[in-house]
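Follow-up to my earlier ticket, as requested here are the two runs.
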Amino acid sequence: MKLRCIGLLTVLLLTACDSGIESTPPAKAELSPIPVETVTIVPTQTKGTLALYGLLEPMSSVSINVDFSAPIQAVLVEEGERVNVGQPLLRFDMAKVELKQRQLRHTLEQAESQFAKAERDLRRMQELKLSNSISQQQLDNAQAEFDSTRSSVSALESELALLHRDLARREIHSPVEGMVSHRNVDPNESTVAYTPLFELEVDASMKVSVFIGEKMLSLVQLGNTAIVKTVTGASKAKVISIASNSDITTGNYEVKLLLDNSLREYRAGMGAEVILDTTPLEGQLLLPESALVVDRGEHVVFLIKDSFAIRQPVKLKYGLNEKLHIASGLKSNDVVAIAGAEFLVDGSLVEVKVKHE
């Protein structure tokens, strides 16, 4: 019985020994590097363009009114019509003024006749007083009549002068070259003093207003140039005004550009695409868009150092012409992954296939 046990134990041991000699541990798997392309971050001068949209407006406008009331005989222009300097816009019905002028002239002739008689009487009374032939009261009465008739003549002459001025303005003429943007009167109506009759757009120059966010405002200065495109053509423009305060609703800043319109290609209200040149900036750190990865809600890049990827959060100023302007997180001469960055994690082994300077 014991021998059988020993024999069985010997068999088991031999079996175990044979099994151990034949088995080998599994080989350890080697990590394959991720192929990437890199770029070296260096300070760069930047100049690009901003694509914006705005509406054309006249550079200035003129309101036409008069300081008197008169009936209108004819309106000589329509809204949207172009006018030249001196072109008649409106004609008044001056029939009543002409009638009043004739009446005043007749009254003035009578007053001048009375004045002439009063003047002769005063001289005669003065001579008689020297010889004590009349009383002082009689002389005073002659003087009063002279003064009264002279005042009447002067008042009538002033009134006639005003009527003459009104008759000279029987037509209202355009003081500028431009376009009639508003017409507020019709024939057979009467004007009201100082009420606008016409609005004229002075359109030899136009302006276009665009709005720019605060982050981009540092890229724009007075004098920056732009190309303004409309359905009628394209022209160069220049920045003439930058708002000091932002729009209360949008938070953006209004920028106005001056546009030559001497050929009258453009009209107020036209939509315009504005390609605005930005101000050159020195020493900017620029990042290709392909290098940026969004990881766990953060903007990150992967620095490449000694064949390993290092996760690096970054903050951006803005994007311009497919380049991202870095606010913080990178420094000069940092090497970052571009092609292949989306496959990296912190600590990834990489193989740099192409280096971009």
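Run two:
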Amino acid sequence: MRTVKNCFWTAPSCAHTSTPLVLLKKGAQAIGRSRGGLSTKVHTAVDALGNPLRLILSPGQIADIDFATDLIADIRTDAVIADKGYDADALVQSIQASGAQAVIPPRSNRKEHRAYDTHLYKDRNLIERFFARIKHFRRIATRYEKLARSYMAFLHLVCTFVWLT
């Protein structure tokens, strides 16, 4: 009688069919569907020099404002600068309650437009330049990792590089 040493397919005669050949990756993935396909959003808070302070991952179909309060929680600052996607009365009130100035331009469909500091809003390019810097790392731009914790580990590694340079 012949003994099968290597089995590459599932067959009734194979001795080890009940054991998985590949270990499954388990854990949160933070991958979501959007119009462009599968994607992940990286929500980031940066300081006045463009260095990252906090990172949060979310699936791609989640709105930016859903993680805004978690992103800025417990960060002491004089002003919070954000784009029109973060224009909500509840967020502006929570920023002002913390003692910071909300520098968020109002959306065009708002009934009553709120005033904001246009000169201070020019510093919003710091976050755009931060994302441009981390996209130089191909592993971050294309997201090779399936699990959110692995992707977040590489994000932290890249953020360390940004802090040092």
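The only thing I checked on run two: The mean pLDDT is 84. Let me know what else you need.
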